[in-house]
Amino acid sequence: MLQAVNILLLVFLVVCAVVVARTKDLLSAVIIFGAYSMVMSIIWQQLHSPDIAITEAAIGAGATSLLFLAAISRTRRHEE
Amino acid sequence: MWLFWQFRRLCTKVNTMHDMVLEVVNRLLLPFIQLFGMYILFHGHLSPGGGFSGGAVIGASLILYSLTFRFARVKHRLDHDTSVFFEAAGALIYVAIGFVGLFFGYNFLTNRGVFPLGVPGQLWSSGMILIITLALGAKVSGTILSLFQELLEGGSDEHGNP
């Protein structure tokens, strides 16, 4: 059961990574990247590394997304 | 029920000039986020976490605070100079605590001789590690907040373009 959940999380991770690279709308890409970081923090927790999970949830899903949002607000939203 | 009345009181109190949902949710949520960050900071030597993780959580909560209340009252309290001050003070306290061990005849950042050494499971017995963790938390949270402020209100380049 737990292995099935782990495989599901990994498949979701790969799908998120591919979709982030292929999305033209940068705001959507940032939000998908936040979901990627959240799933990645759960996977860190599954790999028995809870401090990295805390840091990933705070930095990857919180601060990095906000920094990307600030960068988008200073530039364009759509990729050409 | 108590939460509902608290919610009603907050809804009537917020200013309608700003986004009400964001403000109400953040007033309820921010103390818990910051309490969690302080817990990670203070228990860095006992449980998973430490200076970087707790500082990251507190820095993210400060970014959230300055996004929500940016135009109201955060302008004169959490400006760029304050975050840079906290960042520099954290690094300075870290190096100063490191030199204490050198001053008493041991190596740099030595925990022996000056501070009480650790008893397993006791919060206040970790020597200089707790002070170093707090300084590191101030440093990391100030860095994250100042990065965000630098991106959002950054100055112009040498040609005058924003």
Count of helical segments of chain B?
5
Biggest pleated sheet of chain A: none
End-to-end CA span of chain B: 50 Å
State the largest interface: A-B, 14 and 20 residues
Total number of distinct structural domains of chain A: 1
The fraction of residues in strands of chain A falls at under 5%
| Envelope shape of chain A | flat
Please provide the ordered H/E string of secondary-structure elements of chain A: HHH
By helix and strand content of chain A, what is the structural category?
mainly alpha
- Low-confidence runs of chain A (pLDDT<50, min 5 residues)? none
What is the count of β-strands of chain A? 0
Helix content, binned percent of chain A: over 70%
Oligomeric form of this entry?
Answer: heterodimer
The tally of beta strands of chain B, per DSSP, is: 0
Helical residues, percent of chain B: 55-70%
N/C terminus separation of chain A: 43 Å
How would you spell out the order of helices and strands of chain B?
HHHHH
Computed Rg of chain A: 14 Å
Mean pLDDT metric of chain A: 90
